[in-house]
Design goal:
Layout lengths: L12 H75 L3 H18 L8 E16 L7 E3 L2 E10 L3 E11 L5 E14 L3 E9 L5 H5 L23 E13 L3 E10 L3 E2 L5 E2 L12 E11 L2 E13 L15 E15 L2 E12 L2 E6 L11 H4 L10 E6 L2 E12 L13 E13 L2 H7 L1 E13 L2 E12 L7 E11 L1
Antiparallel strand pairs: 1-2, 1-3, 1-21, 3-4, 4-5, 5-6, 6-7, 7-8, 8-11, 9-10, 11-12, 12-13, 13-14, 14-17, 15-16, 17-18, 18-19, 19-20, 20-21
């Protein structure tokens, strides 16, 4: 501290000393007062800091207490949650509980074993209206057919199935036919041994498509119906099955041995199932089908047999004896069924060798066509008689292509989605028998529209053009309506 030098005045020594002492005292007092004041200020500040610190400590203690309380609450909740989780059964325990309840329920419910024998009824029926512009064409309603099919299965060993056909003839009388009756012996999961009268496995139409509710048009394609080129049935035995390969590919096969076809009185070959064989030769046939994908199938068929000429009722000294000829039929088919499309193609080709066989005996000599005139006879014979006649080699060919599409593939609109337009064209050619050619050979074109009321109930309308090979027959146009259902 700097000492303040007072202004010197002329005073005495004691005064000066006294004055200096006073100033020293004042300085010391000032110093002491400053020290005391500083200490007091410092003490006051220290006291204030301690108070703030105590307040802070108190606040922290309160926060700590709150945190502890919250921690305890959380711990309590966690403990409660763990206790609840512990009370929840594990998945395995729940499954065991369900199994236990299921077993307990099964013991209370009577569950009879499956019967060893089971019956099943199926079939189809139809009614039609056909209006033709031909002079002698049909303009009439038709009750169509009623074809019930019965199935009886014993375990997984064998199944019997039969189909009857009830129909009305032109006189209004009821005709009854047995379409097929067969026993299917199940040889494992992929093979079946069939015995009896069965639908022919040659091609696809007769075996799979001929029921009226499955057929896309009212009529069968030219050459594929009854009395056509495609065999309808046979009596014998067949082995059929499937060989799966890859993820979804299949190879199907049918090998058949039957009584085979017979000659008819028109000089043609009747390809219906006969319960007896008129010769020692059996027919051999079958079909191989390849499905590289489930919606595409291509197949090849074959039928070979000998046919025996028919005995005649007119016996002349120079009348020849009936002979036997070979008959071979082969075919190819293809089917695409995907996304509403139904595209099909079938082709059949048949050859029958030259043969001596009986034909109807014409009443007048020189009659045209096959009969006595063709055999070189001029005598007159009673109506209904038959005479053995030479028949040249017969060639037949039939095919059709069909395109159908369900509109449900492009629209979900009510009513519209149930429509299915259909177009089909086919030809049936016959060479070597003028009578058969004039009666059956034709080109047939169909357009139609199906409306599916249900998956197995259909109402259809269509137009059919028939262009016959016989020059004297005019082209015929038919308007067709049909209601068909399967059950």
């Amino acid at each position: 501290m700097l000492a303040v030098r007072p202004k010197l005045k002329p005073v005495g020594k004691s005064w000066m000393e006294d004055n200096m002492r006073k100033r020293n005292i004042i300085a010391l007092a000032s110093l002491l007062a400053g020290t005391i004041l500083s200490g007091a200020v410092a003490g006051a500040q220290e006291a204030q800091g301690q108070e703030a610190l105590l307040e802070r400590i108190a606040r922290l203690e309160q926060e700590l207490a709150a945190l502890k309380a919250e921690l305890h609450e959380n711990a309590a909740r966690v403990q409660q949650s763990e206790e609840k989780v512990a009370e929840i059964p594990t998945l395995a325990e729940r499954i065991d509980a369900i199994d236990a309840r299921t077993q307990a329920t099964e013991t209370l419910v009577y569950n009879p074993p499956l019967p060893k024998a089971r019956w099943h009824l199926a079939g189809y029926a139809d009614a039609s209206l056909i209006v033709s512009d031909a002079p002698e064409g049909p303009d009439s309603f038709s009750a169509g057919m009623f074809n019930p099919s019965f199935h009886f299965q014993y375990k997984d060993i064998v199944m019997f199935e039969s189909e009857l056909e009830f129909s009305f003839n032109s006189e209004g009388e009821t005709d009854l036919e047995l379409e097929y009756t067969q026993a299917d012996i199940l040889l494992g999961d992929n093979n079946v041994l069939v015995i009896g009268k069965y639908l022919s496995p040659v091609g696809q139409f007769q075996e799979r498509l001929h029921p009226s509710w499955i057929n896309k048009s009212v009529d069968a394609p030219a050459g594929f119906g009854h009395d056509g080129l495609q065999p309808a049935s046979d009596v014998g035995v067949q082995l059929r099955g499937v060989l799966p390969f890859g993820d979804e590919s299949r190879l199907t096969y049918v090998f058949a041995v039957g009584n085979g076809p017979r000659m008819n009185l028109e000089g043609g070959v009747e390809l219906e199932g006969f319960t007896s064989d008129d010769n020692d030769n059996k027919s051999l046939g079958g079909r191989i089908g390849l499905l590289p994908v489930p919606w595409l199938e291509v197949g090849a068929s074959l039928l070979t047999a000998d046919v025996k000429g028919l005995e005649g009722t007119v016996a002349e000294p120079d009348t020849p004896e009936p002979t036997t000829a070979d008959f071979t039929l082969w075919g190819a088919d293809m089917a695409i069924t995907r996304n509403g499309w139904d595209v099909r193609f079938e082709y059949l080709n048949a050859r029958r060798g030259a043969i001596f066989s009986a034909l109807p005996h014409e009443e007048e000599a020189g009659a045209e066509g096959i009969g006595l005139a063709s055999a070189g006879h001029e005598e007159t014979a009673p109506a209904g008689d038959t005479e053995v006649t030479f028949l040249p080699r017969l060639k037949m060919e039939a095919w059709y292509a069909q395109l159908a599409y369900k509109l449900s593939g492009i629209t979900g609109a009510r009513y519209v989605k149930n429509l299915e337009p259909v177009v089909r064209y086919g030809e049936f050619h016959i060479n070597g028998n003028d009578e058969l050619r004039e009666e059956n050979a034709e080109k047939r074109f169909n357009i139609g529209l199906n409306y599916w009321l249900a998956p197995s109930i259909v109402a259809r309308v269509g137009v059919e053009w028939r262009n016959f090979a016989a020059e004297e027959r005019e082209t015929e146009r038919r308007f067709q309506l049909q209601f068909a259902y399967g059950f």
